[in-house]
Structures are given as structure tokens and as C-alpha cells.
Write a structure and sequence with these properties.
single chain, alpha+beta, two-stranded antiparallel sheet, 8 helices
Length: 163
């Protein structure tokens, strides 16, 4: 799921996390630091004379108060940076529909990509990490999380194949 109208940018540059988008759009240092280390309460539009514009989505369900309760081994600013390095996928259509139907989002148009899992995983398996939770949501229950919450797919895949 991406902001409505992002298809052209996705085709040209691929799926990029907030950090990579800040690199591509040459965001100045102070704004970049703010965007990548704090909780995004609102959508943030980045513009560039060559690349056009992109929208970084909000992180309203990532409560800093809750993060202070559940984070292990890092601070909220570090956690936000960890999340902003990554691209995330909804692996379950019903969960995506639930998200898109939430009060904050149901009136907004989105670009939704549906990927064929096996070929995608085969191509990117060295870059894929998995986790047992929605790491960008700390409401209503702030489940414990840390940088080690993310596990390399190859490690999990090869471990389960042996076991």
C-alpha cells in the first residue's frame, strides 16, 4: 500500500523506505533527522525538481508513550529510524482492508500493489526480514520489541527447513 498517485515513482525507483526516499529526494539534514527519528503524526510530502513528489505516510498508531514502555535495547528515536530504513508489506488481505477501513484512512485513496509471493521472495530473500508483530503499531497493547525483533528470512527459512 502506498499513497495514491505513486505508481509512476514506484515503477521508476521501486519500493523505497522513508530513509531511501530522503536520500533520493535530497532532504536537507535537519528535516531528514526530524522525519526519520520522530513519530510522523501527519503525512509528509517530499518534492524534488527531477523526481517530482512522494508522500511519507503517518505513524499515528505508534505511540511514543507506549514505545517507552515496550522498547528494549533502544530509544523511540532509534526505533523510528529502524522502521524508516525498511519497506513493509501487509501479508494478509483482510488485515490490509481493516487498515484501509480505519477511521483515519477510509476516505483516502491508496495505491495497492499485489505481489506474487514466491517469485518476490526468491528474488529478495537475502533482504527480507520477518517479525511476529506489526512493529509500526504500539496501540492498544505495547508488545515488547527491540532491534532483534526483525529476523532474517534466510535464517528462519533454513532453520524451519531443517527442523
Amino acid at each position: 500500500m502506498a499513497s495514491y498517485g505513486s505508481w509512476k515513482t514506484l515503477q521508476e525507483y521501486g519500493l523505497l523506505g522513508s530513509e531511501a526516499l530522503c536520500d533520493l529526494f535530497e532532504v536537507e539534514a535537519a528535516k531528514r533527522s526530524r522525519l526519520l527519528s520522530s513519530q510522523g503524526r501527519d503525512l509528509e510530502v517530499l518534492t524534488h525538481p527531477k523526481h517530482g513528489s512522494v508522500t511519507l505516510r503517518d505513524q499515528k498508531v505508534l505511540s511514543e508513550k507506549n514505545l517507552n514502555q515496550c522498547l528494549q535495547g533502544c530509544k523511540p528515536t532509534e526505533w523510528n529510524r529502524i522502521l524508516n530504513e525498511r519497506v513493509f508489506f501487509w501479508l494478509n488481505r483482510d488485515r490490509l482492508i481493516g487498515f484501509l477501513s480505519a477511521r483515519e484512512y477510509f476516505e483516502k485513496f491508496r495505491t495497492v500493489l499485489e505481489l506474487d509471493g514466491p517469485p518476490f521472495v526468491a528474488e529478495y530473500e537475502k533482504q527480507i526480514e520477518l517479525t511476529h508483530m506489526n512493529t509500526g503499531n504500539s496501540c492498544p497493547i505495547p508488545h515488547p520489541r527491540s532491534p532483534s525483533t526483525f529476523k532474517p528470512y534466510l535464517h528462519i527459512h533454513t532453520s524451519s527447513a531443517r527442523g
